[in-house]
Records
---
Amino acid sequence: QVQLVESGGGLVQPGGSLRLSCAASGSSFTNYVMAWYRQAPGKERELVATITRGGTTNYADSVKGRFTISRDSAKNTLFLQMNSLQPEDTAVYYCYARRFQISWGQGTQVTVSS
């Protein structure tokens, strides 16, 4: 079982940037598929980006070209670099990990507002 803790959220102006981190404990996530999800108020949770153990990445169309998912296996940390943020990106962002079981973080709030 892997435990996930997100950090790095906050308030940012449109066009700004944030980097989210997800620290994992309990086991190495070298062999895990990792992802970021987000959920805006009143909406369902949606997939933002994924990264496989081989480093293959995929992105939702809404964030492609603006967000970058990466991981540092040595530090057991997952990242989401978010650039050119827009109000529509406002949501709680959740870290996700799966190998044989699924783990979720508690979420970190990202608010994009002028």
Note: The first strand starts at residue 3 and ends at 7.
---
Amino acid sequence: QVHLVESGGGLVQPGGSLRLSCAASGSIFSGYAMGWYRQAPGKQRELVATISSAGNPTYADSVKGRFTISRDNARNTVSLQMNSLRPEDTALYYCNRAQTSPVTWGKGTLVTVSS
């Protein structure tokens, strides 16, 4: 049973946009804050954005004003709209619970920002 499935990554040029999606099982989604995380080559995994069960978002300073997190509680999905992408945004992006111990990580979706 796969509990977290990320999609939407790809190769984009600097300044471009991507929208990532995460499909989660109801058992790990409903009633929980969710977050997007990323891990760049040679770096630790970092928290990019969170959204509470009520829809209140938070963002890392590095992505404020460029990324928007959203969720659809009826469909158990969380999305990340990424605009004005920079090479330093290149990473494997994951979704998981936030503010709570994460469940087993999914495979992630790769975002590469390069000219």
Note: The mean pLDDT is 95.
---
Amino acid sequence: QVQLVESGGGLVQPGGSLRLSCAASGRIFSGNAMGWYRQVPGKQRELVASITSGGSTNYADSVKGRFTISRDDAKNTMYLQMNTLKPEDTAVYYCHVKRVVNVEGATIDYWGQGTQVTVSS
């Protein structure tokens, strides 16, 4: 079974930066869409950034210009560079991969365990 492991979270002051990493236990990133989600208590999990197999990216309006998503398929690793962090960015961040499993286009979703990001002075 594929496992995704996030790292890089922590406590940072407003205006600071963090880089999150997501590593897969197997070589599954190549050819698959991936993204970062976040969730805070009492709120629905939301998509922060996504990247397709072709390298196209998309960002939530709240993080545009501050966050950058990237991927290294050869290393089975995805990153989220977070700059100019704000208190409202505080959340648990989750790595997600949508894996295509057959030629008909069926998919399986994989999630990491989450990493806490806290932005506070």
Note: The chain has a mean pLDDT of 93.
